């Protein structure tokens, strides 16, 4: 061992020529605080310097064959040909300083992928955008975060969702329109914030797949359309149509009234009242506490309609072509019986009850006429109206006077005979 401050001479093997000595050199330098091992050949220097500050290795290549342990190591600006990622078990890899090629996404199983405008939480499934756009190459599917809309399009139409409204617009447009084909929103729906408006620019139809034809009023025939339609078509303004196909339409609403059962007033058009049974109707029926028919027009024609006990309203016709088994006569029997039937004065029970329940209601009126039961008792059945169970219901007043015509005719003839006799007596 050399003493402190000593220098060891270089060892030169016997087989090294003088020429090689000119280009190769090695030395070991040892001082009290430093050891330096140095080899130089053709200007290339490899050295190991050991000092209290640390150990430095200089050279072009470093080949380590033994197991190597590095405590608190730093490998800076290195080139590592192959590294097993399974050996990286702790610490932080800063993606800002590396480029990763061919990363297998199946190996990303937890945590949050986060950027300045996008955050994907793999644990909760939450995806949050601050900006950006998701769309197909032809923009048929388009989710625009910046402009805040979602749209899907085909060659004829784009369904556009933006600003709390759904619109159907031209397929080449990417913004809300003031006059779209269709608008669904709560705008223009009155004062209620919870309202809804289904708006069609020119024409609207609400129907089902089995009854979506014949949306206009012509051609007529058995109805095939079910739904509601109206607006301005390519041929001009159309009436608003409500159709119920062959099954009919029910319009119902209002306060409950009692007619055997409690129900609201209704109008049935072609509806027999047996939904789901397959039965079809050809009647129009209405039921309510009262039915009002108001018109600004009037006429001097005689009454020509009849309201049957079941509520049917039918024309009342008198021509012979509507009748059969006609027997004409001038018999006075009905007139004689009619003269024996008393007339009557009365008040309607409903008006009396209304006044009893509500003292401020108008006083009941006094009516004059005849009592149907009296005519029935007199055997004048043809002047009495009965319900479908045979109970007395009313009087056919239009026929009461007719029953007196044969009797009046008989009196006229008798008076004529008497007048002729008186005249002949005066002449004699």
Unreliable parts: 1-12
Average pLDDT number: 85
Q: Hey, roughly how much beta strand do the residues contain?
A: 25-35%
Largest sheet: 7 strands, antiparallel
- Terminal CA distance: 200 Å
Instruction: Output the number of helix runs.
Output: 5
Basic shape: rod-shaped
Structural class: alpha+beta
Q: List the strand order in the largest sheet.
A: 9-10-11-12-13-14-15
Radius of gyration over all CA atoms, rounded: 55 Å
Helix content: 10-25%
Sequence-ordered SSE layout with sheet pairings:
Layout: E1 7-8, H1 18-23, E2 24-30, E3 35-41, E4 44-51, E5 54-58, E6 112-114, E7 118-121, E8 127-129, E9 133-135, E10 141-144, E11 149-153, E12 158-162, E13 165-169, E14 182-185, E15 197-200, E16 203-207, E17 226-233, E18 236-244, E19 249-252, E20 257-259, E21 261-263, E22 266-269, E23 284-287, E24 305-307, E25 313-315, H2 333-339, E26 344-346, H3 349-357, E27 367-369, H4 372-377, E28 384-386, E29 392-395, H5 397-427
Antiparallel strand pairs: 1-2, 2-3, 3-4, 4-5, 6-7, 7-8, 9-10, 10-11, 11-12, 12-13, 13-14, 14-15, 16-17, 17-18, 19-22, 20-21, 22-23, 24-25, 26-27, 28-29
Helix pairs in contact: 2-5
